[in-house]
Amino acid sequence: MISKIELKDFRLFENLTLDSLNPLVILSGKNATGKTSILEALYLCSTGKSHRTNDLSTIIKKDSLFSIIDITADRKYKYVISKESRVGFINKSEVKKLSDFVGNLSVVMYSPDDISLVKGSKLDKRRFLDMEISLIDKTYLKTLNLYKKILAERNELLKQEDIDPTFLDVLTKSISEYTLKIYDRRILFINRLNEILKDITIDLNTENIRLIYKSTYNPKDVLDSYKKHEKSDLFMKSTGIGCHRDEFVIEMDGMDAEEYASEGQARLICIAVKLALKKYIEELTNKKPILLLDDVFAALDKSRISSLVKYINNSYQAFITTTSVMEIPDELLKNALVIRMEKKER
């Protein structure tokens, strides 16, 4: 459980310390008071990435050289972000490889931006798969990196005027082997999420939710798929099938949620998927992820709020942001540490 958070030159905070934290922490205040930034800092310390930007230099407070996130939990975690580098520390010892730093502090975050799981691009959906699987399976991350390296080599070869067919065959065979490994791991992940979602959708009184993986090749003979697509690849000078082209769709009672779900339904789907992810992590790693819920109650009606309360109460620890504590059920408020966030005077 996180007992203390310290931020230095992070977003709008020059110095911020939150300590003596409870299993349930509610961050309440108007917009632009830094509530979401605190969740972002926790997410960064867990994943090495921000859910709000791909350019981490933008989180550094203006006129500062770097941002520092200090988290006290089962161990002490420090993440230092400058414009040029990222450095992680565990118990004051620098972690040489960032991939060995991320995933130690386990969190699951819901944010309004997660609607991209339903309405977003293929790239958004692949990022979700790769991020979440990599955090709990370092072998998957290594396999994915090797796949990307071979993909880059193959694409570079396809751009050449005089292509060595033997070398192309070697790369094609290699990329097909890594494609199958990544496909199998993604399918394992999705299948278990779907099993967990059956119970969650009953609890939330929502439509049946199911993730359907869409591959660009035949998983039963990946090499043959690459061979059949080779003529097109040579013409386009790029690899047109593979894990870098795959996606998943989310079905709601058998219908494509991207097309048929309202915004409210889409947000509820995202909440359900994140709750399923939390249980999956618990099963696979024996870790208890910390729930980060950004403006979650704005997406739910009263009956579904009461269903969500059960999941929050059964969580190891949860951080919730809200613009008004009036949105928070009394059952949660009575056990919560409520931190009022005030707008900084300029």
Automatic annotation (TrEMBL):
Pfam families: SMC_N. InterPro entries: DNA-binding_RecF, P-loop_NTPase, RecF/RecN/SMC_N, RecF_2. Its main location: cytoplasm. It is found in: Cytoplasm. One of its GO terms (molecular function) is single-stranded DNA binding. It comes from the Bacteria. ATP binds at G29, K30, N31, A32, T33, G34, K35, T36. Keywords: ATP-binding, Cytoplasm, DNA damage, DNA repair, DNA replication, DNA-binding, Nucleotide-binding, SOS response. Residues 1-324 form the RecF/RecN/SMC N-terminal domain. The keyword DNA repair applies. GO terms for cellular component: cytoplasm. One of its GO terms (biological process) is DNA replication. The RecF protein is involved in DNA metabolism; it is required for DNA replication and normal SOS inducibility. RecF binds preferentially to single-stranded, linear DNA. It also seems to bind ATP. Belongs to the RecF family. This is DNA replication and repair protein RecF.
